[in-house]
Design brief:
Strand content: 15-25%
Number of strands: 9
CATH superfamily of the largest domain: Collagenase (Catalytic Domain)
CATH class of the largest domain: Alpha Beta
Strand order of the largest sheet: 3-2-4-6-5-1-9
CATH architecture of the largest domain: 3-Layer(aba) Sandwich
Shape: globular
Number of domains: 2
Length: 244
């Protein structure tokens, strides 16, 4: 009898261990199925600085471009959540930073028939840009190359053509503020609107005929025209998400 009981107990232990091993194996299989994300980084340049080589422009530019030829975008609804880290070395108030960024986000929403960006946001003093952590982080930081005003980084799933994260970093080499009040400042809302255009699926345009567009890849101190969208910007975003 004791041998029978001992055999049953050993069998139970073996089955339990087999179950644990199977669970671990399944977890590993699920992780292995996770798609590798593609990453695109957009550099926003100050006027008169060099930029990466661009593809030859058509004779009549459309003045809007998509992140990729397959038009990757967010799958909405639900609206995209984002976090703002207002930490900066220039003593800009948290309320100023969050207002500039959230106003920029709503500018893109107003051009579509969908709520792309969540009306509310999270303030997170630990959030870092250019880090793939599934947080859509908007923050200040230092970029090592001269002439760079801001950097937008977008990660997307190449299988589903869906954006999964974007980050924006405002370069601390510049003096930031409200250029309507002080034209010697780099206007935060102006640059934020451009960078969030990358976050929702649009790329830079560099043709001089497109210099009035929000997605034009150059800016300067005192500029505020990118706070609002021009016809090409609206056309581009509506081709991705639909019209009003």
């Amino acid at each position: 009898m004791k041998k029978i009981i001992l055999g049953i107990l050993i069998g139970i232990v073996v089955l339990a261990l087999s179950g644990v091993a199977l669970a671990i194996s399944n977890q590993g299989a699920e992780k292995s199925k996770a798609p590798d994300l593609e990453k695109i980084e957009f550099i926003h340049w100050k006027k008169d600085f060099a930029k990466p080589g661009a593809a030859k422009a058509p004779q009549t530019p459309t003045c809007y471009k998509f992140l990729t030829g397959s038009k990757v975008k967010w799958v909405v609804p639900p609206a995209v959540n984002y976090v703002i880290n207002p930490t900066n070395s220039q003593n800009l108030d948290e309320s100023f930073v969050t207002s500039a960024v959230s106003t920029s986000a709503e500018t893109w929403d107003a051009a579509t028939g969908k709520e792309l960006m969540n009306n509310s946001y999270t303030v997170d003093y630990t959030a870092a840009a250019r880090v793939q952590d599934y947080k859509n982080a908007i923050a200040f930081g230092n970029y090592p190359t001269a002439g760079v005003i801001a950097v937008a980084t977008v990660w997307y799933n190449p299988a589903t053509k869906a954006i999964v994260e974007f980050d924006v970093m405002f370069d601390t080499d510049w003096t930031w503020g409200d250029a309507i009040i002080d034209p010697t400042k780099m206007d935060l809302q102006n640059i934020a609107t451009h960078e969030l255009g990358h976050g929702v699926g649009l790329a830079d345009v560099y043709e001089t005929a497109c210099d009035a567009a929000t997605m034009y890849g150059y800016s300067n101190y005192g500029e505020t025209q990118k706070r609002t969208l021009e016809t090409p910007d609206v056309t581009g975003i509506q081709k991705l998400y639909g019209g009003l």
